[in-house]
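Bumping with the actual sequence this time:
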Amino acid sequence: MIEIDHVTKRYGSHTAVSDLTLTVEPGSIYGFLGPNGAGKSTTMNIMTGCLSATEGTVRIEGHDIFEEPNEAKSHIGYLPEQPPVYPDMTPREYLSFVARAKGVRGESFSSQIENALAVTQTTDVQHRLIKNLSKGYRQRVGIAQALLGNPSVVILDEPTVGLDPIQIIEIRDLIKTLGKSHTVILSSHILSEVRAVCDQIMIISKGKLVASDTPDHLEKLFAGSMSLELTLRGSQDDIRRVLGQIPGVGSLSFHSGEVDGAQGVTLETTPPADLSEAVFAACARENLPILRMGMQKASLEDVFLELTGGADSTTQENAEGRPVA
């Protein structure tokens, strides 16, 4: 589907993307994660042919984006971070303009516009000026233009930035709908958004790909240990004695319980395992009342921070003073 092979992009002495190699297979929603300045938008601009690469190749459905740009781009629908809409047009006028620019002709011209309006649920506002639409609807119109030409891949760069919570949920639902008929690449630094809609995750840091896998598998790989958060009635000595005898318990740490007279306990398990049943049984036998118990494991946020080193979110700039993402 999409093959990026040893792509590098430099701005003078600054390297925005460094020897990046990745493959996007058909039929999934991919989350493209990274802190600000990691190289996400630069990679997407190269992937869509909007920006040249210093080194490397990009192939879309077997077509080199630099050697065969028209053939390669015909398979891509792209929504940049700033929707490329004309505010003094209506959505229908704008989509008609984009369809002609993409070479859509004949009987499919009207049907593709109608389908794009229907899928993005913008039919009701198709005759209103875009400048009078909410940001959520303008974003939908931007997604609609990306669907024209029947691309097999839809690339969305930060599609929910600046939207209110209701609009974010609506755009997420729209992305899930698109994923049923397109391969979708979604760039974001909002981890909950990626976790909610994506089948695969690619994490980029300082211009390099540092992980590519499913959200669940990434969390399992980086779990290292799980922990049980307990609130128990009993002395620390009794709690250490009882819990320390359970196989798989790595360490215990105490802190103030949220209930007067109770002990707060963090129990680490190594290797990662769910010891909640064993803990419950042991405490019941020894008459240590459990007031509260909950499991914690590595989250996507933990994985992200570990892989990116808690990278500084300050936007970097290229040699000409322009921001690079």
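The tokens above came from a reply further down the thread. The radius of gyration is 25 Å.
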